[in-house]
Amino acid sequence: MGNKQSIQYISTGKGLLALSPIVVFLLLYVVVSVIIGDFYKMPLSIAFIVASMWALLCMPKMKIAERINIFSKGAANGNVLYMIWIFFLAGAFSALAKGIGAIDATVNLALASLPSTFIVPGLFITACFISMSIGTSVGTIVALTPFACQLAQSTGADTAFLVSVVLGGSFFGDNLSFISDTTIAATRSQKVKMNDKFKTNLWIALPAALITLGVYIATGNLEGAGHAAFSSASWWHVLPYLIVIVAAVIGVNVLIVLTLGIFACIAIALCGLADTSLIEMCGFMGDGIRDMSDLIIVTLLAAGLLGVISHNGGVKYIIQVLTRRIDSSRGAQAVIALLVSLVNLCTANNTIAIITVGDIAHKISQQFHLDGRKVASLLDTCSCIVQCLIPYGAQSLMAAGLAHLSPVAFLPYLYYTWALAAIVTLSILLNLPHHRKKQKK
User: Which pLDDT tens digit goes with each residue over 232-245?
Assistant: First the structure.
């Protein structure tokens, strides 16, 4: 049973203690919010601070300086700091684009060009296309969330609903893209070709996307849309947004994409196409960065907390428990799906979750003769599902920060994510898709 021996044994007491900060967080944030009937009353930052304090108390044999150092290393890893740079530039670009009228112009163009019955499906398809092209959900959310927010304001639609459309589409592409880090991690860990994993994954993701698209076509009519006036001068105001979308589609780094968008906004104003001075533009960008401060604090607290949980053996304990009893191929698939989901729940990073459990999943697949293509698809898809649903995931926090909403406001409207979870469950129960030839190991 090599899959059990590949990790150090964690006792039940130690494992549950390591995972207890997640319980503290959920009790403080989710349960309290449900009891009072308002998810806006309990700040995420307070829930994470209390959970983090509890996590540090769960390390009694260490000096306080050592405990804080472990927390700080979790908060200050490269992925987290890189994300914070994105938050800075995203806040600056979003506020600046709104200040010079770029977002208003883009929304007006969409309203004038598309029938009201197709604006929501069109937004979903656009998010799917961009995310699949650039291989990242974060870049797609940065590009389209401001547009969705302004569209909601112009039509009177629910902002959380339209932003959720962007979130769902962004994870469709992130799950399938050849250049997505989750795809790379999943295929490498299972030793399968990317195009083989793509074909298998498509049988899971495409039905969920088509179901979601059908729902949007049937229910996504925006009252009052399609009547906006769009002058020829407004084309120049759309340019920063077009630059961001085109640069994202061709695969430019998201930091460079946002910087290009900022410079485009400044250039339009300096050319006299917007009644905004350079000082006012600096003020817009400063306000945008300040608007992201809560998001940045929550990101650092969540990363530090999850770093402590991992150090204390919480992730290893989850792997140990789930791999203890497997008695069928369907059971093996279910365990792999649950394994990567729970680890993602603890790490709030789908790529890290795949890397963490990839070797274990490969050993399980060999033992129960699972198709590596299906295993890679399960790892990628299930991690994306959890990443989209958790309120402390980078994508939900990013969207919430840009839309000035609670991250849990999106949960009822994540139609694609819920549909994808249902399709994955069916694929395990029915052992689909079937392949004529097994992938060579």
Answer: 546 788 888 788 77
DSSP string, 8-20: ----HHHHHHHHH
Task: Look up residue 344 and give its two tokens.
Answer: 């993602």
56 vs 433, higher pLDDT: 56
Structure tokens at 287: 């306000």
Look at residue 440 in the predicted model and tell me its pLDDT.
44
**Token pair 């937004």 in the structure block, residue:** 123
Kindly state the DSSP code that residue 247 receives in the 8-state scheme: H
Residue 394 identity: A
Q: Which of 9-13, 14-18, 101-105, 217-221 has the highest mean pLDDT?
A: 14-18
What distance lies between CA 131 and its chain's CA centroid? 11
Show the DSSP H helices in 348-414 as ranges.
350-367, 372-389, 394-403
Give 3-state DSSP helix, strand, coil % of the chain, rounded to 5.
80, 0, 20
H or E element at residue 130: helix 119-134
Output the CA torsion sign for 208, 213, 219, 222: positive
pTM beyond 0.85: no
CA distance linking residue 407 with residue 398, whole number of Å: 9
What number of other Cβ atoms are within 10 A of residue 9's Cβ?
A: 12
pLDDT digits 0-9 by tens, 25-78: 888 877 887 788 766 677 878 888 999 999 999 887 889 999 999 999 988 878
Instruction: Check whether the bond before 43 is cis (ω within 30° of 0).
Output: no
312 φ/ψ angles, rounded to the nearest 5 degrees: -80, 0
Alpha-carbon distance 203 to 420, whole Å? 11
Run of H or E including 316 = helix 314-322
Q: Which pLDDT score is estimated for 420?
A: 97
**What's the first-to-final CA gap in the chain, in angstroms?**
19
Residue 210 · residue 422 · CB < 8 Å: no
